[in-house]
Automatic annotation (TrEMBL):
It is a multi-pass membrane protein. The keyword Transmembrane applies. This is NCS1 family nucleobase:cation symporter-1. The lineage of its organism: Bacteria, Pseudomonadati, Pseudomonadota, Betaproteobacteria, Burkholderiales. It holds the Pfam family Transp_cyt_pur. Belongs to the purine-cytosine permease (2.A.39) family.
Length: 494
């Protein structure tokens, strides 16, 4: 398919159009580097802490993180296939199942979640700058809090400074992000080994945290309760990357071949994520020896270092947060916002919108109100995104047999317009997939307001992502049986 519009300009722009052969420059190591870059982030580092605090041993936490990422890799590879084959982003792929107008619903859902994460990661980056300046100046900086904002002037300035660093990459586009991920990934791996060496020498060993038994063993505080803790933890870990499982075509559309995207993602996601969890447990184990308590926050740990080590550590964390935030939380919503009004909103404009919303959301306030419910948040939005993934996969593999008429995806009166641009089957399947999880979510998020939720709904919510993807896939498959439209191999790539 050419770069010239062949359908409605309400559905097409150059950024949403299928990628050309010249744009398909990503090899397997680019995808591996992309994932290494995204995996090595502060929230991923601290995931093990939540599992160990829940009663798991170090090894149980590491294996849970690894298993969750091996599971979420499957829908990523499945949905990513369409991006490589046809060169289309997630927001366009969703048109084949939800309709040319209806696709804006899953695109907007994905975008809103990403905006929240983008703002939170930007706040983390700003706090690193704030911490670095405080260490260099020998004390707290910034003075009194600003009325209405709840943070002081220095914190606000550091937040906006980090926001500005990321804005440069929005202006310079996807290729600048690819280069950042590729060049910084080896550095992050090196830093991990340096950090391990530092704590080993400093603490005279790695401590006892990794070898400590879980609280679920006989005689422990939570004896016999392992599975009741494991399943919600696994669901939350899956939810951590559930957003990327949807919009992975935004990256795989630049792949040179299916082998490149499959191999790169398989190498780059589950193993590095498991290894990062192991490193977090080992390093934190050593902090018990060094400081008398477990320090899971790498920013806090960096601030306790001395000399040039503080500067190096926090600069690495800054680079890390920039690369993660741009790849995981900027690219997807930029395309998603563009798909809402392609004639008016380009990819860059979508990025500007994402960055602007990140400021308006005041992410430090989000953290104040939801930090205690981080698992509720992770599981909660996985309950929304799981059904969308189920619908996309069934539509692409079972209904379409991986055959799409790409030109029709850009036509308001084409084969994917259904009834006024909406596919009722997808909407019904989505709602049916989400509804069973609503009571459990309300009880988990607002226990005092919804105390009487039945145990059955609480159990269902424990498996929110799995329940949502399974129910929506089944319902959509039944409703769409025999309704597939003939598709041509237009713009298909090997």
């Amino acid at each position: 398919m050419s770069k010239e519009p062949t359908g409605s300009t309400q559905l097409w722009n150059e950024d949403l159009a299928p990628t050309t052969a010249a744009q398909r420059s990503w090899r397997w190591y680019h995808f591996a580097a992309l994932w290494v870059g995204m995996v090595m982030c502060i929230p991923a580092y601290t995931l093990s802490a939540s599992l160990i605090e829940g009663g798991m041993s170090g090894w149980q936490a590491v294996l849970t993180v690894f298993l969750a990422n091996a599971i979420v890799l499957l829908p990523m590879l499945a949905i990513g296939h369409a991006g490589t084959k046809y060169g289309i982003p997630y927001a366009v792929l969703a048109r084949s199942s939800f309709g040319t107008t209806g696709a804006r619903l899953p695109a907007l859902m994905r975008a809103i979640v990403a905006c929240g994460w983008y703002g939170i990661q930007t706040w983390f980056g700003g706090q690193m700058i704030y911490t670095l300046l405080g260490v260099m100046m020998g004390g707290e900086i910034g003075g009194a809090k600003i009325a209405g904002l709840g943070i002081n002037g220095a914190q606000l300035a550091c937040f906006l400074a980090f926001w500005g660093i990321q804005f440069w990459y929005i202006v310079h586009g996807m290729d600048a992000i690819r280069k950042l991920e590729t060049y910084t990934a080896p550095l992050k791996i090196l830093i991990c080994f340096v950090l391990l060496g530092w704590v080993y020498n400093k603490a005279g060993g790695f401590g006892d945290l990794l070898s400590a038994p879980s609280q679920f063993v006989e005689g422990g505080k939570k004896a016999g309760q392992f599975w009741s803790a494991f399943w919600p933890s696994l669901t939350a870990m899956v939810g951590f990357w559930a957003t990327l499982a949807l919009n992975i075509p935004d990256f795989t559309r630049f792949a040179r071949s299916q082998r490149d995207q499959v191999l790169g993602q398989s190498v780059g996601l589950p193993v590095p994520m498991g290894l990062l969890a192991m490193m977090a447990v080992i390093v934190t184990s050593a902090t018990v020896v060094l400081y008398g308590k477990a320090i899971w926050d790498p920013v806090d740990l960096s601030s306790r270092m001395t000399g040039v080590a503080v500067l190096v550590a926090l600069l690495i964390l800054l680079i890390d947060t920039v690369s993660v935030n741009l790849a995981a939380n900027l690219v997807g919503p930029a395309y998603d916002f563009s798909s809402l009004a392609p004639r008016l909103i380009s990819y860059k404009t979508g990025g500007y919108i994402t960055a602007s919303i990140a400021i308006l959301m005041m992410p430090w306030k989000i953290l104040e109100s939801t930090q205690g419910y981080i698992f509720t948040w992770l599981i909660g939005y996985s309950a929304l995104l799981g059904p969308i993934a189920g619908i996309l996969i069934i539509d692409y593999y079972m209904v379409r047999k991986t055959e799409l008429d790409v030109a029709q995806l850009y036509r308001e009166d084409g084969g994917y317009s259904y009834g006024n641009g909406w596919n009722t089957a997808a909407l019904v399947a989505f709602v049916v997939g989400v509804v069973p999880n609503i009571p459990g979510f309300l009880n988990a998020a607002f226990p005092s307001s919804f105390p009487g939720v039945a145990d059955g709904f609480k159990t269902i919510y424990t498996y929110a992502w799995f329940v949502g993807i399974a129910i929506s896939a089944l319902v959509y498959g039944v409703l769409m049986k025999g309704k597939a439209l003939p598709a041509m191999r237009a713009a298909a790539q090997p």
